[in-house]
Amino acid sequence: MMRLVPVRETILAGAILVLLILVASRFPGFVAPSNLANVFNDTAPLIILALGQMVVILTRCIDLSVAANLALTGMAVAMINVAMPGLPIPVIIAIAILLGGALGAINGVLVWKLAIPPIVVTLGTMTIFRGIIFLISDGKWVNSHEMSPAFTGVPRMVLLGLPVLSWAAIVTIFLFAIMMARTQFGRSIFAVGGNPHAAVYTGIDVGKTQFWAFVVSGALAGLTGYLWVSRFAVAYVDIAGGFELEVVAACVIGGISIAGGIGSVGGAVLGALFLGVVKNALPVVNISPFWQLAISGSAILIAVAFNARAGRKKGRIILKEAEGAK
Amino acid sequence: MTHPAPHAPDVTPIVSMDMITKTFPGVKALDDVKLDLYPGQVTALVGENGAGKSTTVKILTGIYKTDGGTIRIDGQPVSFAAPNDAAKAGITAIHQETVLFDELSVAENIYIGHAPKTRFGLIDTSEMHRAASALLAEIGAPFNSHTQLRELGIANKHLVAIARALSVDARVVIMDEPTAALSHKEIEELYDLVDTLKSQGKAILFISHKFDEIFRIADRYTVFRDGAFVGDGRIADIAEDDLVTMMVGRSVDQIFPARAHDVGEEVLKVVGYEHPTEFSEINFSLNRGEILGFYGLVGAGRSEFMQALFGITKPSKGVCRINGDITVIRSPADAVSNGIVYVPEDRGKQGAVIGLPIFQNITLPSLGRTSRRGFLQMAEEFKLAREYSQRLDLRAAALDQDVGNLSGGNQQKVVIAKWLATQPQVIILDEPTKGIDIGSKAAVHEFMAELAAQGLSVIMVSSEIPEVIGMSDRVIVMREGRIAAELNGADLSPEILVRHAAGITSSSEGNAA
Questions:
Q1: pTM (2 d.p.)
Q2: Is B82 in the A-facing interface, judged by CB distances under 8 Å?
Q3: Cβ atoms of residues B17 and B69 within 8 Å
Q4: pLDDT in tens, B23-34
Q5: Cα–Cα distance between B61 and B202 in angstroms, integer?
Q6: Do B71 and B35 have their domain in common?
Q7: Partner-chain contact A201 B344, CB within 8 Å
Q8: Which of B368, B401, B423 is the last residue before a domain boundary?
Q9: Which of A266, A270, B204, B362 has the most CB within a 10 Å radius?
């Protein structure tokens, strides 16, 4: 979607701005640059996962296994770190990305080759991944004192004023912006979701594109797995439990059409930031965390209703028969 | 062309459509047509694809509203606001693809929407099965009311549809190509059933392309051509040849572009393509600069074969030679890289990607050429898109405009531009002018001739006889998945095409298959 003024993103950015102004009116410290940087850092895992999820949703699929993938990869790299404390962190990160990608590839193969509906596949692998964590860890936690200082230190390491965790999100955003706009893969993703039939006639392999979307989503879940476990310095079976729904919510709020084909990197990032701001602002202004759920839920419904209205204009019927049938 | 005088029987028709007009954006689907259906008689509605038969059925069943004209039932003018109104008036249709529910039982399918109720407003299951069993016995169905629908074959599903028609006490039964997927024996059983319905005084509208069955079971005929009424009368008063002439006779004198017809060397040779169910023994060759027409009735296997040629489905056997080299096409990507492109029939579904801007739609199959070191170059993309949109005279405010905001005709240009931008050798056009008006048709024909003149080989799948004859250098007629005839020059006449396509064996021409 290339427009000079991306309407949906502008509205969403406006909503975040209004939210910030409202919070600032009661607690000006919230909008101090250092605090905003903290909010961004706190939202970084959600941003990374939302971008992976966006790719999957654009191809008319969904990946419910991201949080379980994150937890499994996180546990795996934590255990590797305990077993081999000397292993350099870049290697750990590479392992996390590859392992996450491999787990994503399992989803992808099941969707591509066996044509099982994505929601069923990822619901299944979600449970399986959690089960595997229990098997490899015997249900035990990996605690901070077992991890090497380098392992837990990297996400907090400050480079040019921002922690590595924030930089990971920024680099991911940058790479995705290029991938979606400037590569054949990115274009294929839009084509597959926008009109799978046309994509087939164009020579694009729909199943293969969906497979790679799952691999991308899985790889980002793997990356986030390391970042998450090292940031909180703990790994156990249930980390990031239910986080997949927050990831999907970020995409939906960000205007990624759940029917596929419509969405943008900017939308996914803003959707994640919206949820991040809500989550961080409510405790500050003394609103019960229970409201957070209600506000997130309302935001999803408003976003979907808004997108459905916009989508109706988009889905213009050009076939005379269908038009006559109205 | 003969116009036998309508021979009005003594009885009054149950349904009488008069001066019916129906316009879709850009197309007049029905223009002042009339159709009468008499009790206890089978009326065959005859016409080519696009003659307006389906539109008529949809009007009769309340799916479409008419733009003009009157429908009378028992002499009283009626108007159907919704499909339910037509059902209440006793009109029911049995469609080509029967609209039934696989996961429900036969009885539930028969009574869905009007099931007998108990005192408490719940469905009276035992009464429903009792009534359904009675209906099934009446039509001699070889299964019981508890059978799950998905266990039944197509013929038996038709019986369920007929039972459903009887259950609402329909007086008018519309059968839209009911025998298309039936075996010989099943067809005979269906004929018996039609006789039963006739004896109960129901009016039957029978739509079929098969002349033998029209003459076998119809009492009356009505002929439409290009959305206009041509004639009607009693089957007993007309010969098969005359009916064919009425059906195909050209109403509008379309002008087709003059072409040189000088074709070059062989570009594509298809040898022994076979598919387990859709087609077999497909052999033909295609030359440079040639327009090869593929004619046949709906379901003759033309599109299915083209999809196999393009690599979307896999044939069980067969190879093709492209410029003399044996080439195996396993996927559409293979086909595109070998210079074969396919412009599918349903452009809304298979053509443009609504949501991508125009230029990205045009460059979609050519992304390799607009990339540098794996990155798409927007300037290159715009250049390519601009070149081909200018060649096709695409009317759009800007190339980065969403393709969904274009008119149907301009969307079609985007789809064609997309294919031309791949610089193909062979272009397969599936029903290129279906559903567009005469003016746009002429433009498409002009353009097709231009492509051929530039040395592109065109395969044109078309069900419109004037177009097939007017545009093609050579015509292949397909019937039931096989090549029935290959015709050119002097052999190209509407009558001969229809004979081969419909398999009328009584003709002196004989059959190639």
A1: 0.75
A2: no
A3: yes
A4: 876 667 888 899
A5: 16
A6: yes
A7: yes
A8: B423
A9: B362
